[in-house]
Write a structure and sequence with these properties.
heterodimer; A: Rubrerythrin, domain 2; 2 domains; B: 165 residues; Aconitase, domain 4; seven-stranded mixed sheet
Chain lengths: 100, 165
């Protein structure tokens, strides 16, 4: 069996990155478990195993001015609104690529 | 099993190892026994190899003293999960071979004193109730370095960094 056949590929709902999860590891997951996207750092809760579906719990972004990490709220994620850095007060837009 | 040692936000390097217990003050062979001496006096005596340290935001701020993470290395801490890190300290952790993971949610979920299974290779934490918290696995170069103990040890042995041809 090839390596590909032993892995499950799921797309991060935030950055659309294809995450490779060994089938054995996926089999141990249950709904409610949490995984962190290795590409964008989005924190995802497994809503369904088959098909794989996730709820977004949180996402960190980096202030483009001072580099501080900022946890985005649901509102900021949904509305793609302006974010103000609590450290340096820089205001910036967060843009996401829709995976769907 | 790994025990979770939970700390809060802004744990600085003086919290991790107070300056008066630096290796050049108390001795390079014993300084690690003073890790968190003021902040959490029971820590150094009770921490076991492989235990997980969990922090909030800005873990490791303050002085970039390398002997702070070095104390954790000598105590064989299994890894640190924090919401964010001071960047020089983060680099020191990796240089010394202490896996450092970043997550905003997982540090909030983990409870001080709880026992978990922690698989460093895969970044997987399994709690006693079976819940899985899946961190991104350490990148290949770090796993390669950890086989030698740290990035520094790797470099000393091979005269190159992991992943370099």
């Amino acid at each position: 069996m090839s390596e590909e056949e032993q892995s499950l590929f799921v797309n991060c709902p935030v950055c659309a990155e294809e995450l490779e999860i060994p089938s054995e590891a996926w089999d141990e997951f249950e709904e409610g478990d949490i995984l962190v996207c290795e590409s964008c750092g989005a924190e995802l809760q497994i809503a369904s195993l088959d098909p794989p579906e996730f709820d977004l719990l949180g996402l960190l972004t980096e202030c483009p001015s001072c580099g501080a990490e900022i946890e985005l709220t649901d509102e900021q994620l949904e509305e793609n609104s302006k974010v103000t850095c609590p450290d340096c007060n820089t205001t910036f837009n967060v843009e996401f690529e829709d995976a769907e | 099993m790994a025990r979770v040692w939970k700390f809060g936000d802004s744990i600085n390097t003086d919290d991790i190892l107070p300056g008066k217990f630096a290796p050049f003050m108390v001795g390079a062979d014993v300084f690690h026994r003073y890790a968190f001496a003021h902040f959490r006096p029971e820590f150094a005596a009770q921490v076991k190899p492989g235990d997980l340290l969990v922090g909030g935001r800005n873990w490791g701020l303050g002085s970039s003293r390398e002997y702070a993470p070095k104390a954790l290395k000598k105590l064989e801490v299994g890894g640190i999960i924090a919401q964010s890190y001071a960047r020089i300290h983060y680099r020191n952790l990796l240089n010394l071979g202490i896996p450092a993971f970043e997550s905003s949610i997982i540090p909030e979920l983990l409870v001080d004193g709880e026992e978990v299974e922690f698989d460093l290779e895969t970044g997987r934490i399994t709690r006693l109730d079976g819940t899985i918290l899946q961190l991104p696995a350490p990148p290949e170069f770090l796993r390669e370095a950890l086989k030698e103990g740290s990035i520094l040890e790797y470099y000393k042995k091979y005269q190159k960094f992991p992943g370099e041809s």
